[in-house]
Design a protein that fits this description.
Layout (H helix, E strand, L loop, with lengths): L19 E3 L2 E3 L2 H7 L5 H8 L4 H10 L6 H16 L1
Helix pairs in contact: 1-2, 1-3
Length: 86
């Protein structure tokens, strides 16, 4: 069992540096990508992608203009992010 995402399992964390590019925007981590996808506003997505840390991206995602279909698409967004990462 994996108890935490450190050491040899660090790469499994959504905070692990693993750039994802989509629509001309590079997201440094899965966390950046997931939080940015909460909005359809390109400027907000770019701002979240530019956050200096995944933790900051997560905080920004909590304050973004939430897209109306977020509850319906969030699992698919995470699936896609992980697919792009691996």
């Amino acid at each position: 069992m994996i108890n935490d995402f450190s050491g040899k399992y660090a790469f499994l964390s959504n905070f692990y540096h693993s750039p994802i590019e989509e629509d001309g925007i590079t997201y440094p981590t899965v966390e950046h990508y997931f939080q940015a996808m909460k909005t359809t506003n390109i400027k907000e997505r770019q701002a979240i992608a530019g956050a200096p840390t995944p933790g900051k991206a997560k905080r920004m995602g909590r304050r973004t203009n939430l897209r109306p279909d977020w509850e319906d698409v969030k699992i698919e967004v995470m699936r896609k992010a992980l697919e792009l990462k691996f």
